[in-house]
Amino acid sequence: MSSSKTDVVVLGAGIVGVSAALHLQAKGQTVTLIDRVAEAATETSFGNTGIVQSEAVFPYTFPRAPGEIAAAALGLDPRVHIRYAALPAIAPWIWRYFLASSAGRRMATAMAMRGLVGRCVAEHRALAEPAGATALLRESGWIKAWRTTRGEDHAMADVEEEKPFGLPTVKLSRDDLIELEPHLGGVVSGGVHYPDPLTTPDPQALTQTYANLFVARGGKFVAGDALSLAQSGDGWTLTTADGPLQASAAVVALGPWTTDLAKAFGYRFPLGAKRGYHMHYAANDGAFLNRPVLDVERGYVLTPMRRGIRLTTGAEFARRDDPPSSAHLDRLEPFGRGLLPALGARLDSAPWLGKRPCLPDMAPVIGPAPRHKGLWFDFGHQHLGLTLGPVSGRLLAEMIAGETPFIDPKPFRADRF
After folding, report:
1. N or C: which terminal CB in the chain sees fewer CB atoms within 10 Å?
2. Beta bridge partner(s), residue 231
């Protein structure tokens, strides 16, 4: 079978890979998008809170206070679930995550991330309009709701920290909160509204619509084996369902599976997987939510989705490929029913499991492989894949095209570890 040729092959069809393919295509490159099933957003991009978090300048860091660490370790913090059998395997990554969560390093990450986060809404809109996906982006923002004064203090501390970055917020009394979300229960006493972020009722459909735009513009989307990537002269070869593929450049956008391919070329990235679950629920008695709501003290989010009300959990610390467990979702579900008393029956046969690819400093790798010409990385977007996919794709495409990037890419270089 003869080989086909392309300028760039993009490995991985989540929101990050699809966005990279679109931006490279816009630079005049012929692009082939590869995924194991030739379908967009079937893994990590399938399930999330549906928020394009234009306020998320500061990273999600590991707790530093001894009391918070002890609470998590003892299973007393519902925001976190630990699979204790996995601890020996994941302890080195947790230690690096802890070290990278110091105040100084946290601020350094925020200063680097502000350039990406600040463009996330604009870059989504730039893709959504030609893709015909504007109906999949809502402009009502999202809410952090608290139960106690401690939760209020925590949320408002975040607001104060974010003020230098010019992020709009509106503090809500209990009455203000109920005016925006009339079906919330009596357990919440107030909140803060972030009005600028976009939200989507179907993250998978949004990514699929972007992928459809890529194909409509002449891109090729086929099933293939990312792990078959190999150097061939000055380029790359890959096995696909349509036969061998030759490419001048390859982009690795495989999320938590990036390490499986990277290690074949001698790269050892400290990549962990903070796992999360979701479940959809019916809403009884005509109840609804207008926007996503975070339960500050419990660490889960309720989001109105096409499928129903989605409850998305916080972080499960486990090995990437450990079997799923409903324990974290089961623990959080009663809290969700308190937050939204009309939360009805489960609509999914089992909780969905996603694996958020997290580097210790909670910043992605975007840029060239240090020792392989034509090999590029775009992964490690932690909790913000939906947020950062399109803007990361722009940054990557500008670098591959030899243009001056719109922000300094050095904080995201592959050799920073």
Report:
1. N
2. 236
- Residue-wise DSSP of 141-158: -EEEEESSHHHHHHHHHH
Taking a C-beta distance cutoff of 8 angstroms, is the pair 64, 401 a contact?
no
Structure tokens at 285: 């008695």
The pLDDT of residue 148: 98
CA 62 – CA 69 distance, rounded (Å): 8
What's phi and psi for 346, nearest 5 deg? -65, 140
Given a cut of 60, whether residue 61 has pLDDT beyond it is yes
Chain centroid offset of residue 8 CA = 24
Backbone angles phi, psi at 129, to 5 degrees: -65, -55
pLDDT tens string 214-252: 999 999 999 999 999 999 999 999 999 999 999 999 999
DSSP string computed for 260-325: HHHGGGT-----EEEEEEEEEEEEGGG---SS-EEETTT--EEEE-SSSEEEE--EEES-TTSPP-
CATH 3.30.9.10 in the chain, residue ranges: 142-195+275-356
CA distance 30 to 381: 25
CATH code of 142-195+275-356, in short, is: 3.30.9.10
Q: Which residue from 194, 152, 197 is spatially nearest to 173, judged by alpha carbons?
A: 152
Q: Both tokens of residue 335?
A: 């809290």
Phi, psi of 99 (to 5 degrees): -60, -40
| CATH superfamily ID and name for 1-61+101-138+199-271+359-417 | FAD/NAD(P)-binding domain (3.50.50.60)
User: Is the pLDDT score of 1 beyond 70?
Assistant: no
CATH 3.50.50.60 residue ranges for the chain: 1-61+101-138+199-271+359-417
Residue 79 CB partners (closer than 8 Å, separation 6+)? 72, 298, 299, 300, 314, 315
**pLDDT at residue 370 in the model:** 97
Question: Is 363 within 8 Å of 380 (Cβ atoms)?
Answer: yes
Residue type, 380: G
- pTM to 2 decimals? 0.97
